[in-house]
Amino acid sequence: MSPETSKSHFRKIQSFKTDYAPCTITQYVSDRSGMQVVVADRKGPKLNGYFTLATEIFDDSGAPHTLEHLVFMGSKSYQYKGLLDKLSSRAYSHTNAWTATNHTAYTLETAGWDGFAQVLPVYLEHVILPTITDESIVTEVWHIDGEGNDAGVVYSEMQAVQFRSSELMDIKARRLLYPENVGFRYETGGMTDALRVLAPERIRQFHRDMYQPRNLCLVLVGEVNQDELIQILEDFEESIKDDIPSLDTPFKRPWIDSAQPPKINETQIVTVEFPEEDESVGEVLVGFFGPNCNDLIQSSALNVLLTYLCGSSVSILENVMVEKEELASSVSYWTDPRPDMVIWLQPTGVATEKLEFVEKRLFELLKEVASKPIDMDYMRECIRRERRQVKYHAETSESFYATNIITDYLFGKRDGSTLKDLKDLEEYDVLEKWTDQQWRDFLSKWMADAPHVSILGKPSHDLATKMKKDEEARIAKRKEDLGPEGLEKLAKRLEDAKKKNYEPIPASVVDRWRVPSTDSIHFIESDTARSGHARAVGSGTGSAQKLIDGATQGKLPLFIQFEDVPTNFVHITIHIGTSEVPNELKPLMPIFSDNFFNTHIMRDGKQVNFEQVVMELERDTISYSLHSARYLSDPDGIMISFQVEPEKYAAAVEWIRTMMFDSIFDPQRLKASVTKALA
User: Fold this and answer.
1) How far apart are CA 547 and CA 612, in angstroms?
2) What UniProt keywords apply to this chain's record, in alphabetical order (predicted)?
């Protein structure tokens, strides 16, 4: 059935091509269930699905996180744990999920459309109609084992992270930013004390409230047969129509129909202790409210400004606080897209006795930047680099489309007008015309002069000792209260739950699904050419080899292989062995790696300082790095990587030669690298 026929309940809202990458985005909505579907259709062998629900809760119970696990324990028609995974493996697929503060996403990564189409309806039934049995809650969420200890998959996950410095600082910041009636305040993963008292019915009620088709968006990135997709979804909706609420029943759109956070009236600086035996190093976390994430110009300006401030070793915050004054090992930044975005700055590796000073110094620098003329040449380079990186990620990463589409589903307009912002990159044209004063006003409004929350993360050996003793005392008292008989009952309860959950899946059930054909897997074609020592392996037979053979051949003492693939960019990777490096020097490799692109060079007999080197590298590239060759099964090797536009290929080759042979090992630069490594 075609999605265009009158029989379909799925109505096409819009379809448009992106002008910066070969992709067509099509948006549908079901007039029967309210389910949304967005397809980012682009060529390639992989198809990725992100089945996204806007999930909002006003407590730390962890109910959203529990469902991320319970969904995979079986559904109304398929009541076997692991069936979905077995089916996926037969269909060249892989399943996963994540829980964020504002949504839960279930993923399906597949080679080709046929496998995806086979798994899709089974997966969706697991999401909409999971079994959520008491037994699955016992093993997957929380239980007390026969030894009196807390266990369970979700509980163990949260126990491992809850008292990390990053988690404690984050939750404190959110408690300060948001009042009790705003869901962003809470830990959706679940706090351990709340997980221990989480009732099964609370989980089931949360599922009934949030896991409705009208609160679900299917995001597909890859080659999709859209006629077949709509027919599959039509059949799926028909199969669940008696199990879901009608569109006439009341429903509040999470995050949009809820209370919005008030503005920050005054700055708050709070110290948070975290358990740590080494009390020498702490962290600083600063949070501001930013513009609305649906304001494309403002949110893009924010990304560019953050790159300008702390995107590299020549950016003002990194250059001063890390490279020159050595107050931190890095200055990280990120944003949370929301109706009121949150801007985060995080100086890490800060000496504990300097936490207050570093927080103060951060704002001195922000105010200094806002009070003086902006380096407009560097700002324009940041804008152009941001544009290049968007084009690159749109071509190479499925997460580019998925992240933007999910954000639009959560906070954008349902008529598709905000989604259409993905059509082009005109926002960068607008930003290139911004004046010095506009950038300074923007910085002052959202950061330099803005009320904010600052969290000073302070390590505490005493807290670590106290928490360990308190936990041991709690468990000891529990064992005493339960006694041998109580512990035996809990052990039997757990064993019974495992027996129920791990019932073997009959082969006849799995065999109901065929292994799909590989015909729908459209591999990327590559034309190989070789030169230098690589010719010993054999030469290519296509046009790429003819082109290489026709080029001026110098003496190449290297193994060089070219792959001609359909791309708008050039990817250069140099694999270097380290077998000749003496063992006693290998511990210095991390220092060498950090210093490689952040050092002075000699050019035409003159020294060029590292700031100029980094600025020129950023101008000529999309990205560059030196990292381990581990993924090439050579954990001792290193790799130099460049991603550039085709016209910058020669510049990239020249940079490789320059950084390998013309760099200067400056003691001050090496000291900065050592300081960062030790932080």
Assistant:
1) 35
2) Hydrolase, Metalloprotease, Protease
Q: Are 476 and 291 in contact (CB under 8 A)?
A: no
638 and 629 Cβ atoms separated by less than 8 Å = yes
- Residue 23: C-alpha distances to residues 224, 393, 409 (Å): 12, 12, 19
Sign (positive or negative) of CA dihedral 305, 307, 309, 314: negative
Amino acid identity at 402: A
CB 595 within 8 A of CB 669: yes
- State which H helix or E strand residue 433 sits in: none
The neighbouring-strand residues paired with 423 are: none
pLDDT, tens digit (0-9, with 9 covering 90-100), for 536-584: 999 999 999 999 988 877 677 899 999 999 999 999 999 999 989 999 9
Query: Mean of the pLDDT values across residues 311-332?
Result: 94
User: What is the pTM for the complete model shown?
Assistant: 0.94
Bridge partners, 273 (sequence order): 458
Cβ pair 262, 339 in contact under 8 A: no
Report d(CA 106, CA 94) in Å as an integer: 11
Place of tokens 């082109």: 547
pLDDT at 4 over 60: no
- The per-residue DSSP string of 304-348 comes to HHHHHHHSSTTSHHIIIIIIIS---SEEEEEEE-SSS-EEEEEEE
- Decide if 123 contacts 83 (C-beta within 8 A): no
Q: How many of the other CB atoms lie within 10 Å of CB of 93?
A: 25
Counts for the chain of helices (H) and strands (E), in that order: 23, 22
Domains and CATH numbers, the chain: 268-398+414-459 (3.30.830.10), 569-678 (3.30.830.10)
Say which residues have a Cβ less than 8 Å from residue 506's Cβ, sequence separation at least 6. none
Among candidates 580, 522, 475, 376, which has minimal Cα distance to 150? 475
Pairwise CA distance, residues 560 & 175, whole Å: 55
The predicted-structure confidence for 243-279, as pLDDT tens digits, reads as follows 999 999 999 999 999 999 999 999 999 999 999 999 9
The neighbouring-strand residues paired with 46 are 111
Enter the tokens of residue 448: 């330099």
Work out the average pLDDT over 75-104.
96
The tally of CA atoms less than 13 A away on the side-chain side of residue 24 is 10
pLDDT tens track for 90-109? 999 999 999 999 999 999 99
Interval 664-675: pLDDT, tens: 998 988 888 888
SS3 164: coil
Q: Compute how many other C-beta atoms are within 10 angstroms of the C-beta atom of residue 572.
A: 16
Say how far apart CA 503 and CA 628 lie, in whole Å.
43
The tokens for 525 are 């074609």
